[in-house]
Amino acid sequence: MSEDNKPIKIAFFDAQDYDIKAFEAANESYNYEIKFFETKLTADTVKLAKKCDAVCVFVNDMIDKDIIDALVKRKVKLIALRCAGYNNVDLAYANGKITVVRVPAYSPYAVAEHAMALLLTSIRRIHKAYIRTRDFNFNLNGLTGFDLHGKTVGVIGTGKIGRIFTDICKGFGMNVLAYDKFPAADSGLHYVSLDEIWEQADIISLRCPLTDETKHLINTPTIAKMKKGIVIINTSRGALINSKALLEGLKSRKIGAACLDVYEEEADVFYHDYSGHIIDDDILARLISFPNVIVTSHQAFLTREALGNIAATTLDNVRTVLSGEKCNNEVSYQG
Ligand code: NAI
Fold first, then answer.
1. 142/251 same-domain check
2. To test the ligand 1 pocket, which listed residue (102, 111, 237, 297) has its Cβ within 8 A of the most ligand atoms?
3. Is residue 178 classed as helix, strand or coil in its secondary structure?
4. Structural domain tally of the chain?
5. CB burial class (10 A; 0-12, 13-18, 19+) of residue 190?
6. Which of 82, 207, 237, 264 is catalytic?
7. pLDDT at 121 > cutoff 80
8. Do 274 and 128 fall within a single domain?
9. Is 298 known to be catalytic?
């Protein structure tokens, strides 16, 4: 119940069928009034949040100053992110105006396992083999891969997902080099400088958040330092990679393969079916055209376990904040 004893109302944006299913199941314990909207939260759609206590948003809902003002004007008290990353919210501006919560961990396994799935698919050419055998083409030419065993993987960001990913890599007999701005003393990982990762890794896996500091971490100068044939995996945030530099690196054959679950300009494309359309984004279209690039549509989180945990934590975040309790999942501005 909200302060005035009415059921808590949540405007839920960017709702997909799987979200609705998971949240309706979790809401049996809360009985909130959740209005599901297929649209993203934008300046045009913010009016849908009228009379709601909270909005629930996802990775590509851009919560800028105007949206925050519009929510505050409509007396919305809470922005409940149903994701871990919060780079899409202007936290500095939200500070003191509206509370922001997130789901810091729902299944780091889902994301780490997806990263490994992309890597294996790419280097063992499974995406190509699948299409061939569907067409009764059993020829193996062009499908030669390489062993992961004995290769060096550079993992940038050794938080929850990074640590699970390194464990998976160790299971394959890979050498793990780690970089983190805040190395974990208890991790037993071999931390090195970023330059050592660029120079020594056969595979680079991005597992850090998107911040001003990490934006375009992969760019033309850093690609120049990498080994020829480097495989880059990004299931964190698209803007960690300068897409134009990636494109050039692939065209020059410096980059051997790219496994991307996220893309800098994904907001207008991912989660929608454009199969009958002409894509305006030339960089994305070109990337998808390469045989050594695999793009998935920000789906690394998409497991039954993760969806259940996202829904349960989000609804509990709403309860905690709106009942005035301290919420451990509040994202506060670190000025
Ligand atoms: P986490 O907070 O547990 O770990 C992040 C790690 O990055 C920390 O160890 C932190 O010290 C490190 N870090 C911070 N700044 C850094 C810098 N400048 N350079 C290097 N390392 C830095 O986060 P978690 O749960 O492991 O998630 C990582 C990222 O994965 C999230 O920020 C999010 O962007 C992304 N993600 C993507 C999903 C998908 O579906 N594709 C789903 C969930 C998360």
1. yes
2. 111
3. strand
4. 2
5. exposed
6. 237
7. yes
8. yes
9. yes
